[in-house]
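Much of what follows relies on a compact textual record of a protein's fold. With that in mind, consider the following protein and its fold in token form.
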Amino acid sequence: MRVKNQCSKDLDVAIRYKNISGNWIFAKWYRLDSGERSFLKHDNSRMKTKSAVIYSYAKTISGTPWDTGPYEFASGGRVYEMKKTVDKEGVTDIVLCD
């Protein structure tokens, strides 16, 4: 799974995805500089999914929500407004500020 930050700011990113075993995973925080594209790892392994649906939440370094969406997910007593990406080509690219 690869994320590209096309936003004008450096961001911290959280991802919710189904792993290869079919379990939902909520992985956070990955710092991406403006313009950076990176493969993400969770538990020391590159994130992989067979699902076409991936959710993302991004905030600025100071904590301001930046690239968010209408899909709510609660974790640790906090609700994240996540953006949904549907991967129709099997590439598993998430683009922030697209």
